[in-house]
């Protein structure tokens, strides 16, 4: 009889503990949702007037301003662009963190995607006098299924950084087929630069939000300190992770592997279609 009472009591205690845990989890979820909603509202509210500021600055710059005004307008344009990039990055991180991102499954051509990205960044490469090389394994199937917009975001961030932190050097984008099964292509990507490199003590923290090399680096190269956070989060969403090897003064190599579905049914006459 006593044992029965003890068992009942401990069951009751367990139930209470369980309920407490569930309540604490619900409370944390509510707080996290409220934070995400707040961030999203504030960011959207900031974006509207900022678009006006950017638009008017652009118009004024087109009106052939005097030399003295040009300096202020350029500075206004830089700050406007920075704030826009910052707000967009915050919105993106918020969306990923609150599980509001859905992955697309669309037919795409990886080679074309990388060539388009390269073409869109050629100006940055030329400005910094960098050789800019695409090295794509010809064995990679032409038609893959995945989320090309998320992939572009990942590549744009990494390649833009590589070009930004390298002067008179070389930036290579390497895509290598690791394994090809009937439905799946395992591809390894490397973004290699011969730029300023990252000190060993910073190798882990560069992926944290707002982490930047140093105040001097931030002042010299600009940026929001959120790009690599987004890259890591997007890759995690795609079931992968990012690896970094870097030597100060010599350069960096960011690499990751992706398992992409091979589109065996692709009819060449059909336009890109949702699967
Ligand atoms: P940012 O917008 O400041 O570039 P990121 O999150 O993209 O933010 O990068 C964080 C920091 O990591 C950068 O400020 C820089 O110090 C360092 N970093 C990133 N990519 C490179 C690279 N290719 N070479 C050297 N340093 C880099």
UniProtKB/TrEMBL annotation:
Keywords linked to the UniProt accession: Coiled coil, Kinase, Phosphoprotein, Signal, TPR repeat, Transferase, Two-component regulatory system
Histidine kinase domain segment(s): 41-262
Superkingdom in the source lineage: Bacteria
One GO molecular-function entry: phosphorelay sensor kinase activity
Coiled-coil residue spans: 7-34
Key word Coiled coil present: yes
Protein name: histidine kinase
Record lineage: Bacteria, Pseudomonadati, Bacteroidota, Flavobacteriia, Flavobacteriales
Stretch of the intact protein here: 322 to 596 of 723
